[in-house]
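Q&A log
Question type: sequence-to-structure
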Amino acid sequence: MKSIFLFTISVCTAVAAFAQQPYNPNKMVFAPTNKPNTIIYNDTIYKGSSQFKNLFLRTGNVELAMLYREHQTNKITGNIVTTIGTVATIVGVSEATKSGGNNTVGWLVTGGGLVATITGGYLILVGQRRLVAATELFNKHYATKATVGAGFTNNGIGVVVKF
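Response status: OK
Response body:
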């Protein structure tokens, strides 16, 4: 019991240590959330695949488009596999615990459902890693450094803000 408690505390501490991430307004920042994922770029919050699609595909960068599509494929496949696994687990437990049911088949279906659920979760995490890679690639190629300049012209004083 004590080891389970200590394990729980250590996991919560590890998760809390990465709860905040730095925000650079000149770069794209990926904020991993349950649903929908969020990207902050140029003081705009982008949520969900339709907004990500516009953000990444408008660059014309083939590698960014590939990372976005891999993210979408992994996310959709992961959600489908997780749903099937959850249903299989429920059906398997029901079959295994029902009187007169086939216990062996029920527990096999339950085990398969748990494996499918874990696999689906893994695929979703791989999809998020693709989205992180896409934001890093975007920052490498397209993030700008804001500069401010002031100067005199024939008509007066001017200020230029370049993003």
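Response note: The helical segments are 2-17, 48-57, 62-97, 103-142.
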